[in-house]
Amino acid sequence: MLATLIDAPFDDKDWVFETKWDGFRLVAKTERKSGALYSRNGNDVTRRYASVAEALDVIKRNAVIDGELVALDAEGRSRFQLLQNALKGKARLRYYVFDLLFLDGRDLRSKPLRERKDRLRAILRRHPLVRYSVHRKRAGRAAFNKARRAGEEGIIAKQAASLYHSGKRSREWLKIKAGHEQEAIIVGFTKPHGSREHFGSLVLGVYDKGKLVYVGHSGGGFSREMLATLHARMMKLRTDKKPFTDVAHEDKTTWIRPRLVCQVKFTEWTHEGEMRHPVFLGMRTDKPARQVRRERA
């Protein structure tokens, strides 16, 4: 179940408000002695995040749980960029869980959110890597201000009586962001300049009404290692087919098949529908390119 973006927080006694964690959405499947993790597009990522999967054995029930995997900085804030270090064992990981979909073979998705959350808290045991994502009732503005002061991405607002609609975007769940971030599809790259190696900037697109459209170039936010690694991945996807025609300096662009998804931050959307000053944050392996849409409140 996915949330719809809106532009401002609100207060409502029939809603609950959670921190919007800056990470990967993962579904956990637990049995009495083991656990598995799956990305939004159904890929098994258990081995990739083995330490978190092993920590799921504290849940001594057969369950399907929804949550967000994050990497924490020194101040305990979730930072998407730090997830890129997870495979090297350098990231401080935590899996925040917020919904319970199945329990001991029983489908709970038709139960109200408040009941699913109560049952989830009842089966959780405290563990450093697996935590319940605490929510606040009624006071959405206070929750948003707290998240913004803490340097988090924003909040998620959910109707307390909402049912769980797997794979669907709903207005029963809303997201309010403290800054501007957007998932984007990498469709090409430009030549490097000066001392920069491998590539200069990424050419980015999103799907809008079923059509792939240009939303900007991103040339900042890359480590040397990421430049090399990403360039190698992009070279395997080269194509002569242009995804769109409204991009300047096409003669300097190497096009690739629209398969890779990244996360960027930016200052604002322009009137032309492009991101102003997009900065690369990291790669997204939890979402297929066809699901990347322009997010506007």
Walk me through the structure.
With 297 residues, this protein is mostly beta strands. It folds into three domains: 1-17 and 137-178, Dna Ligase, domain 1, CATH 3.30.1490; 22-132, DNA ligase/mRNA capping enzyme (D-amino Acid Aminotransferase, Chain A, domain 1); 181-291, Nucleic acid-binding proteins (OB fold (Dihydrolipoamide Acetyltransferase, E2P), Beta Barrel), CATH 2.40.50. The chain has four helices and 18 strands. The radius of gyration is 20 Å and the shape is globular. The two termini are 18 Å apart.
Mean pLDDT metric = 92
Total of DSSP H or I helical runs spanning 4+ residues: 4
List the quaternary state of the chains.
Answer: single chain
Query: What distance lies between the first and last C-alpha atoms, to the nearest angstrom?
Result: 18 Å
What is the H-and-E element order?
EEEEHEEEHEEHEEEEEHEEEE
- Using DSSP, what is the number of strands? 18
Morphology? globular
Total individual domains? 3
Strand content: 35-45%
Helix content: 10-25%
Report the major sheet.
6 strands, mixed
Radius of gyration: 20 Å
